[in-house]
């Protein structure tokens, strides 16, 4: 008998965590699972599983859905994540195998619950190619770290930018967001203070630092950083003016870090220039639901748009 595709029973979240460990070789706790799929200012979440006749979880496909915007219009943004199938349950590309059945069920569920959602995800090259061959994925952005290189000479305007670490001042973040949100033209999750607090301040295991960017003493945006296990600093999230040179803004960050540290570790971000020949990219892609959103501008994903940084 074919596995049954159904919603994940909350009583089986520990089983889903074990499936995650079996497939990816990494541990996820029930606390982290609840944080990812139940907390924050979300529109909803979807958790679908493939279950064998004896109750074993063979596969899972999930999505966290948040309010978004594109060109000033509201847009439901659905991040597809934790797409996983046990080795023993994997097959070829036939439509009755576990993987395609899970993705099709996810497409149908998102389509029923949300109006023309913009579904997206981040896969390695190999799983992306599989999904693309089956018509599920469309490439949007090859995401690679670009490393900050100190400019040979700081321009006058560059010297006017400042980065300052602040506590999680939610009212200040909302003021910055409301000032900037109407000018955003690319599909993006609404980065309200409530969203940032859930995603970064309240993360169950990672620690993040918030830096407000000012120009001529006025708040213009922010950077959010995480120190990775290898000591490098990753800019995981940002709100920066479209016309600003990102290198100048990261230079302001480096200056701020240097003021309280004897050495500045390597700093990287996805919005800095990168070398396509160096390293395997993460494939930022659209996941087909009802249609491809080809009329939208391409989003500019950041590490914080994933669920791993």
In short:
This protein is of the alpha+beta class and 309 residues long.
Describe the structure.
There is one protein chain. The protein is α+β, with helices and mostly antiparallel strands and 309 residues long. 27% of the residues lie in helices and 31% in strands. The strands form two sheets. Strands 1, 2, 3, 4, 5, 6, 9 and 14 form an eight-stranded mixed sheet that branches. A hairpin with a 5-residue loop joins strand 2 and strand 3 (57-70). The chain is elongated and about 65 Å long.
Keywords, separated by commas or semicolons:
309 residues; alpha+beta; eight-stranded mixed beta sheet; six-stranded mixed beta sheet
**CA gyration radius, whole angstroms:** 20 Å
Question: What does the largest sheet look like?
Answer: 8 strands, mixed
Question: How many beta-strand elements?
Answer: 14
Parts with pLDDT < 50 across at least 5 consecutive residues? none
> Approximately how much beta-strand content do the residues carry?
25-35%
Share in helix: 25-40%
Distance between the termini: 39 Å
Structure annotation, total helices = 8
User: For the residues shown, what is the average pLDDT?
Assistant: 94
Give the overall form: elongated
Reading the helices and strands in chain order gives EHHEEEHEHEEHEHEHEEEHEE
Alpha-beta content class = alpha+beta
């Amino acid at each position: 008998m074919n596995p049954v595709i159904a919603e994940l029973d909350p009583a089986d979240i520990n089983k889903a965590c074990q499936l995650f460990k079996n497939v990816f070789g990494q541990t996820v706790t029930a606390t982290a699972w609840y944080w990812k799929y139940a907390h924050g200012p979300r529109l909803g979440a979807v958790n679908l599983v493939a279950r064998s006749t004896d109750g074993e979880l063979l596969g899972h496909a999930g999505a966290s859905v948040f309010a978004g915007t594109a060109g000033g219009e509201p847009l439901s943004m659905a991040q597809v994540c934790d797409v996983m199938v046990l080795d023993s349950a994997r097959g070829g590309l036939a439509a009755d195998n576990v993987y395609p059945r899970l993705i099709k069920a996810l497409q149908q569920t998102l389509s029923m619950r949300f109006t023309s959602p913009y579904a997206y995800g981040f896969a390695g090259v190999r799983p992306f190619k599989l999904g693309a061959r089956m018509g599920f994925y469309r490439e949007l952005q090859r995401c690679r770290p670009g490393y900050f290189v100190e400019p040979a000479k700081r321009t006058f305007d560059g010297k006017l930018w400042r980065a300052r670490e602040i506590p999680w001042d939610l009212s200040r973040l909302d003021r910055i967001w409301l000032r900037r949100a109407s000018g955003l033209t690319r599909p993006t999750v609404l980065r309200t203070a409530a969203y940032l607090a859930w995603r970064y301040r309240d993360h169950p295991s990672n620690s993040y630092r918030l830096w407000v960017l000012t120009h001529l003493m006025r708040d213009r945006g922010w950077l959010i950083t995480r120190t990775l296990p290898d000591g490098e600093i990753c800019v995981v999230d940002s709100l920066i003016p479209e016309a600003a040179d990102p290198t100048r803004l990261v230079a302001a960050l480096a200056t701020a870090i240097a003021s309280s540290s004897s050495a500045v570790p390597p700093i990287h971000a996805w919005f800095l220039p990168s070398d396509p020949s160096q390293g395997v990219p993460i494939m930022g892609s659209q996941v087909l639901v009802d249609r491809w959103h080809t009329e939208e501008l391409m989003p500019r994903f950041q590490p914080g748009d994933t669920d791993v940084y």
